[in-house]
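Example record

One chain of 681 residues, shown exactly as stored in the release files.
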Amino acid sequence: MSNTFDGVLREFPFIGLDRFNTSALVFLLTHCHADHLSGISNKSFTNLVYCSKETKMLLALDKKLTKSLKMVKAVPYNVRTRLETPPDASNAIYITLIEAYHCLGASMFLVEELSESASVANCSQSSDYNVDQVSRAVLCTGDLRAEQWWRESVHQSPALFPYLKGDKSLDCIYFDSTFAYRGEPFIEIPPNNHGIHAAVSMLREYPRSDPEIEFEFSDTTLGFEQAWAFILSYFGGSLKVHSKHLAQKLELVAEYDRINGKTLKSAMTRFYAKKEAAVFHGGAPSDSDSILVKIKQCINFNIRDYTGICCPIPLNSVPSISELQLIRETKAGNKLFEYLDRLWILPYGGTKLLPLEVKLIFSRHSSYSEVRAFLEMFTPRQVFPCFYSPTVWRNGFSMARVFGHLCVESKSSYDEMMVSLYGALPKEVVTRSIATINRWSISECEKEEIFIKEIMKQDELLPQEEPLKGPALLNLRKVVRVPFLKNERSSKDFDFIKGRHKDFSLQKMTEGRRSLNYEKFVQKQQMLYYKKHNLPQYKRDYQSPKYSKDFMSALGGSSDYDTDSCGSSLDLLARTRKSVCASGSAHQRSFIACSQPGLFWKVQKDVSRHPSFTRNSLVKSSFDSFEEDMSPPKQDGQRTEQIYYNLEGHVDFTNIDELSTSLMHAPRIWQEMQLCCIPSQ
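Predicted structure tokens for this chain:
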């Protein structure tokens, strides 16, 4: 996701951050990714830029930045460095770089301004001052994965210690808010180490001694080399890098990454020394005729789809060997088959089909829960997100709502900016509870699926004569709060706790697949997935409308949609729409015909039948997360997207409730409505 921060530090307007086409006089660069370099290569840019030593060396690899590089000043980590401020600046300003967990050279910036008296005393370049002399301070995180182990390491920073202890409050924290672009409910992301373990567990079953089978790291953005190093170290593999630019970056990583550098260097050495080892490609090779097993990153997935789609398929579950189409057989006897429109490897003497793509659950950005835990370590006056958009704002992403309880002050510069640009959010939106979901929890996946099934039952859409509870009538998803004391817990509380304890983690699932409990779960999920693909052993389901031939799987045949959305709920909605289209009346089919996969539904008055009606709409999701747009309706027949419910330009919750009640008790009102689906953001 591209960086959308405007680059302006509100407390220090002459200091720019990760954007170089602003009016700032001096700039801070957190890391070298392209979306944080906007404007730095412009011919007119001649300002001073501060960054880490590693970031500057990475910038030097880009010939387009040769001129700009003269203005880049590398500073060490954990050392107070006085900023070259404008001549009219009366107070001294110091920056301290703290290493961030994102990619090589990624840094947080602590910016501190000394009081006037302290500035006079420290008129030299000396950094000999104490925290009591600081009048203002902000922390800029840049892009960041704030896992628990990293958050604990922050306590070892002397520069941040006074702010962590609570003696001093940061005026603002400019934080990585990439998690917000997916909207609510905010998803949980497993620790990167768990994702790497899961990938390794899968890769152990592949024939690595066959020279005709090689492996490909598909994601080459700087930061993924951590996963490469762990996998290469585990298997003792060799690394072949095809891009010259990527090879240069990896050479820097090999030299300056204290943890992963030596592993990457050894792997590259093994390849060029032509030692016998499994070959891993950095990026897609253009000259290889080997069978390539792709190792591809994904984030927004769920454990049920993961086990059903990404796990090996036992041969005894294949109805007939004739179903397998042989594509290639290596000299070592390993076979490549096409099955279910996908490619699979069957090792020599093996009993399982191995998918040709291994999913790597790995993220370089924080989840909402990780960001919240990081901000809770401080007592900032306010916070400011470094990713935002109109859609994100209208979905309720205000700092007062999301992180206001963590801040000392009630005001928010971000909220004020967004209100001036896109209008204020209604009170009902601002006060709405934060919705999250852990799709790596089996119980939460099941609850989500059950919820969608309940509201999208076929008999609730058909026939018209019976009451409808359609998608406009979704209820608020309940949040279970279990009392701390056992004697205060009800039987439902204990059932909830018991269900939670049954959840399998990603790591346990992949490493324990051969144990009976895990094996049964995997087989169940694969069975559900096979049904969707109409395997012959499920012919009865195949012939029923419930599992129609054109049924859309959650992730498609190639499972390439995982980085955009988890498809469980979308899948159910698609299934319902197709069932209605297959068996409903012409009028009912018209409701569904224009629908596209997505969670958000819109109900509109049909102005062609009732010209006096204003065209109003209602949108709700399964988690009671609304799509809101407070902008005035468009004229001249233009489509107005993401409308909450407008009545003369205002949100009217009374009419929403009235419409919902009417639809429930008088289903014929649907004849006056148009039902279509808006893709979730």
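Notes: Residues 516-532 form the longest helix (17 residues).
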